[in-house]
Write a sequence for this structure.
C-alpha cells in the first residue's frame, strides 16, 4: 500500500498513472462509494481558504497529483514517481480497464450536449464499453427530491465506476456527501469530459510535460486561467515554508 504524503496539509499519493490505476482498482469491488480526487495548485490553495474542502480531501480514498505544479512539488519534497496523474488520461485508462473486465461506467455532470458527445466518443474508442447512464444535473443547488432521484437512478443502473465532472470544489463536496449513498466508486475528473470530447482543446504533450499547459489554455479560458495562475506565488511561498520547516 502506498502511503500518502503531506503537501501543505493535504494528503497526496505520490504515484504515476499506472500506480494510480492499481490503487483505484482495489476499491471497485467494495461498492461503498469511495471517492478519489485529482489535485492541482487550484485545489490545494482552495483547501487553505476552505477547511471543509481540506477535510474532504483528507478523507478521500486518495488524492492524485493532477497538475504539473503539484507533481513537481512532491518530487521536490523527496518523492519518486514517474509523472502526474492527469484526470483525462486516467479516465481513458480506467475505461479501457472497465472494458477488459466487463465493468459498467456512469457519467455525472457537465452539459447534456457534452454528455451526448462524450458517450459517442467513448463508444468509438471502446466499442464494447458499457455506459450504464449519464446525468447532467441543473446548475442550481439540488433539492432533496432531485438528489434522491439522481441517487436512485445511478444505483438502479448498478455501475461499477462513476465519473463526476462538476468542477472543483463542487465535485469533491458532492462525492463526499454521496459516499455510502452511491455504491459505485467515484472519480472527480474535473474537465476530463470537456478534454475528451474536444470542447476544450488539449495542449500538445510537450507543453503539458513542461508545465506550459496554462499558456495554451489562456486564449480559450482567459479568466479561469489568469485566476489560477495568480495562485502560483502563494503556492510557492507555502511550499518554501514547508521545506524550511522540514529542515
Amino acid at each position: 500500500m502506498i502511503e500518502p504524503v503531506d503537501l501543505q496539509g493535504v494528503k497526496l499519493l505520490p504515484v504515476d498513472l499506472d500506480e494510480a490505476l492499481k490503487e483505484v482498482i482495489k476499491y471497485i469491488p467494495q461498492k461503498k462509494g469511495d471517492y478519489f480526487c485529482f489535485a492541482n495548485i487550484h485545489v490545494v490553495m482552495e483547501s487553505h481558504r476552505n477547511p471543509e474542502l481540506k477535510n474532504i480531501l483528507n478523507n478521500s480514498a486518495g488524492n492524485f497529483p493532477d497538475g504539473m505544479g503539484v507533481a513537481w512539488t512532491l518530487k521536490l519534497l523527496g518523492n519518486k514517481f514517474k509523472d502526474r496523474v492527469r484526470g483525462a488520461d486516467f479516465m481513458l485508462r480506467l475505461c479501457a480497464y472497465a472494458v477488459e473486465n466487463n465493468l459498467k461506467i456512469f457519467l455525472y455532470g457537465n452539459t447534456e450536449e457534452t454528455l451526448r458527445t462524450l458517450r459517442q466518443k467513448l463508444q468509438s474508442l471502446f466499442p464494447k464499453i458499457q455506459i450504464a447512464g449519464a446525468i447532467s444535473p441543473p446548475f442550481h443547488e439540488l433539492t432533496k427530491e432531485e438528489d434522491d432521484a439522481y441517487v436512485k437512478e445511478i444505483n438502479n443502473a448498478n455501475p461499477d465506476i462513476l465519473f463526476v465532472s462538476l468542477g472543483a470544489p463542487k465535485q469533491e463536496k458532492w462525492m463526499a456527501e454521496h459516499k455510502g449513498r452511491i455504491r459505485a466508486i467515484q472519480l472527480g475528473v474535473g474537465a476530463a469530459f470537456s478534454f475528451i470530447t474536444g470542447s476544450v482543446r488539449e495542449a500538445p504533450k510537450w507543453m503539458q510535460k513542461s508545465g506550459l499547459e496554462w499558456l495554451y489554455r489562456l486564449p480559450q479560458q482567459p479568466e479561469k486561467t489568469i485566476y489560477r495562475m495568480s495562485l502560483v506565488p502563494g503556492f510557492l511561498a507555502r511550499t518554501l515554508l514547508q521545506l524550511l520547516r522540514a529542515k
Remarks:
- DSSP finds 13 helices and eight strands in the chain.
